[in-house]
Amino acid sequence: MTRPVAGIICCTRTVGIEPAQAVMSRYVEATMAHADVAALLVPSLPGRMRAAEVVGRLDGLMLTGSPSNLDPALYGEEIGDAPGPFDTARDGMTADLIKAMLDLGKPVFGICRGFQEINVAFGGTLRRDMAANPDLIAHHAPDDVDFNGMFDHTHEVALTPGGVLARAFGAEAAVVNSVHYQGVDRLGEGLAVEARAPDGVVEAFSATVNGAPVLAVQWHPEWKPAQNRQSQIFFEIFGRALRGAPLVVDTPGASR
Ligand SMILES: N[C@@H](CCC(=O)NCCCC(=O)O)C(=O)O
User: Per its UniProt entry, which superkingdom is the organism in (predicted)?
Assistant: First the structure.
């Protein structure tokens, strides 16, 4: 039987001295393995391709994490010294893809940068002080840790009772990795909070648009999902969304 096809966004990166369309394999492999789908990588080349030309071939869209930050102008803040790196090609492509997918009633899921992109697409704003603000918990590991150590940095989130994640995980809280310097400031219109950090910052949200589920998390379920049942469940939800199935099969204690 042919499986659904997930579109997975590429970033503009540099390989050697050349610009490249790239996505870390962990995002692609976790999506394919745990959502049980085929995948197509979508280039962030909005000057060469319109989202409307490809969304008809996709059953759902996965927006990945990335070290790059959204251009604050996208959420109405013109700041000369905003922290980069930027990837304005990805900014443009994802904004068009989110709209085109949801216009067709097709699922859109996001991880970390993808979560931030969806919030902005729904009219929300971002804050850029998630690692430095003493009033917040540390949302990023200290600068001197190595790459693996970055993903070892965790904190708890409270899951919204009755929400998609609380039901799917069969839990009231979860411990999540935290690899971001920016986060949700104003939540986009129509997005329902799925999880909050202990400092109140929104860590996951959901929505339904034209019948299509939207679900996004600030953390990284693609990081070693074999070791984390809740990470697997995030992608299983995506797989169900692409099949038009109910997002949650209510099984008490699902993640335990
Ligand atoms: N740059 C944004 C988004 C954070 C993010 O997606 N981090 C992932 C980095 C690791 C990877 O490449 O997967 C922010 O800092 O908030």
Answer: Bacteria
Q: Which residue from 179, 182, 201 has its CB within 8 A of the most atoms of ligand 1, so it is best to mutate?
A: 179
Distance CA 125, CA 120 (A): 6
For the CA of 67, the nearest atom of ligand 1: 1
> How far, in Å, is the centroid of ligand 1 from the Cα of 90?
13
Q: Is 0.90 topped by the overall pTM?
A: yes
The ipTM of this complex is 0.98
Q: Is 90 in the pocket of ligand 1 (CB under 6 A)?
A: no
The rounded Å distance from CA 140 to ligand 1 centre is 10
Q: Is the CB of 67 under 6 A from ligand 1?
A: yes
Give the pLDDT score at 55. 98
Give the number of other CB atoms < 10 A from CB of residue 61.
30
Regarding the beta carbon of 24 and ligand 1, being less than 6 Å apart is answered yes
The SS3 assignment for 206 reads strand
Task: Look up the CATH superfamily of 5-242.
Answer: Class I glutamine amidotransferase (GATase) domain (3.40.50.880)
The token pair at 231 is 């990470």
What ranges do the domains of the chain cover? 5-242
CA 126 vs CA 73, 78, 132, 188, 229: distances in Å: 11, 13, 15, 10, 29
Residues 139-187: tens digit of each pLDDT: 999 999 999 999 999 999 999 999 999 999 999 999 999 999 999 999 9
C-beta 218 within 6 A of ligand 1: no
If pLDDT is split at 50, 70 and 90, which confidence band does 251 have? low
